[in-house]
Specification:
alpha+beta, rod-shaped, 2 strands, 3 helices, single chain
């Protein structure tokens, strides 16, 4: 009996609902056994947002590196 309480069967695992968070709000999906359609536009928008975020992060990183080099050059020249 103790062994059965510690492990969930596959049926219990698949009956849970899944919630995802996005900028457009909270989406709740329940596993009802039906095939769901995937909206390609939502997936493409998510990829575009991730690429935009990565580009911003890399721009900030290289900007900070450039600022450190400029400040170091000014300090050395004084």
């Amino acid at each position: 009996m103790w062994f059965n309480l510690n492990y969930m069967s596959g049926e219990q695992i698949t009956n849970h609902s899944v919630e995802t968070h996005s900028e457009s709000g909270l989406h709740s999906y329940k596993n009802s056994g039906k095939k769901r359609r995937v909206d390609i536009n939502i997936l493409l928008n998510n990829i575009r947002q991730e690429k935009k975020k990565e580009k911003l992060e890399s721009t900030i990183f290289f900007g900070l590196i450039a600022a450190v080099i400029v400040v170091t050059g000014i300090i050395v020249s004084i």
